[in-house]
Amino acid sequence: MGCRCEKEDNISNFRFVNHHHKPESTNGKCLNQMIHNKLSYLQKRQTSGLLREYTQRRQADDARGDQSALNSNFDQLRQKAEWEATSHMKMKQAQVRDKFHTLVAEESYALERRRKKLADLLTYEAEQYQKELDESQETSEMRQERMLARARELKAKREEERKKFAQEQLDRRWRDESDELRHLASQDLAERVRIERLGQLKQREEKLQREQEEQRYYDDLWEKDRQVKMNREKQETERRKKSAESTLSILSHQIQERRDLTESQMQELQDEGLRVRTKELDDRQRKYAAKVEMDRMSSQKKAEKEMESALQIEMDREFVRQMTLKERHAKEADQKAREQRTHDGIKYRQYLEEEQRKKNVDDTELNMTLQRSANEIWQKREEVRRKEEDFRNRLTTEVANERNRQMSAKRDHKIVEKQEALAERERIEADRQRWEREEREKQEKKRQERLAVQQAQLEQMEGRKQTKYQEQYSEQNRADQERDLKAQREQRIQQEIEKGAHYKNYNRKKLNMNERVL
């Protein structure tokens, strides 16, 4: 349209130059200046509209970039928190597993040691039993020879004991008659008794001191382990709390800044999409706070489980200590019973020898008495051995059954705990999936809303552009019409001027002719 007007202007100017040989008039210059100013104004308005649209698009792109950076930051924080929680859980599991393997190895070593002692004891008793059986299997001649040898041995022993007793009596009589020897003997006896008493007291004190030191060592070890665990848990709790607080403060600061920016943009543009984004950020903040609270509850539950595990370990340790103490008491009781049996056997043999010396029977009666005594002793010994073996087997069976029952209960408890943990993990995973599904649905809905808003904005911008184009087109048409009218008016003025000039020339010629005539 501008090209056509310029062409018409050139044509009119050419026509004016050819016919009249005169420059443009002042009115034409003003008209061209007005048209040029109008076109510059239209171009500036169009350029300002494009700049405003570009600025709006640039702000929208910046907002989307900030939102993407914020989402990426949130994802990094979430991944870091999950990694820290997973690493801490794996470290705790490894420590508990190592401690469990150590305790199992110690218990296995102690069990193998007890089994070895029981096997050695059974082997020794079997050898003694076999030896006695081998000794008991003999013929009548061997038995007679053995009994004769035994009788001669006893006779020689009695004679020796009689001589020894007589000598001791003589020595005793001589010592009793000597005051100095009696005094020295009493001092020596008192000194030996005192030394023996001191030795017993010292052994008892050393034993008590060793037991106390061992008890203190295990108590200190348990206390140090408990303090280390408590400090570690406290530090971990404080670190997580500080991390959560710092994260929440940073998030709150970012949300506040985002909210301020959003409010300023809302005040400037009155855009509904920014308010939707603000609501989305608020929802995300609330969900993040809920997630932090859930992590805190998980950490607290984990700490409670660790304390329960430590308590269970301490109970197992106390059970092992009680079983060791019970086994020690049983060994002491067995030792005392064995010493008592030995003492009773010695007294019984002394009694038999005394009776044998008093009765002074013949060899047959001696053989019968010795055989009967040997049979009775063997029967009693066999009965005692059988009772000890039954008691030992029963005690071993009870200990093994009790330990198996405890291990089975512990395994069942661990299975139940694992099932509960698995169910809890599945529930949390289901909640997380549901939350993610809801988030995706909300995001999709918000995206559809944003697309609708953007589509409406684009339609509005397209309508505005069409309106601007129509206005520009109408203004251009009006300018063309005005230019045509002005050209027509100038043409009529030029025609009038030409008519006036022609009439003036005609009058001048007529006047000249009249002058010539005159």
TrEMBL record:
Keyword flag Glycoprotein: no
Q: What is its main location?
A: other
State the coiled-coil residue ranges: 119-171
The record's keywords, sorted A to Z, are: Cell projection, Cilium, Coiled coil
Q: Where is the composition biased (Basic and acidic residues)?
A: 227-239, 272-284, 379-405, 414-450, 477-501
Entry's transmembrane regions: none
Does the keyword section mention Transmembrane helix? no
Gene Ontology cellular-component terms listed:
cilium
Q: Where in the cell is it found?
A: Cell projection, Cilium
| UniProt biased composition (Polar residues) | 245-254
- The ranges of region (Disordered) come to 227-284, 290-309, 327-351, 379-518
Query: Can you name this protein?
Result: Trichohyalin-plectin-homology domain-containing protein
Q: Which species does this protein come from?
A: Planoprotostelium fungivorum
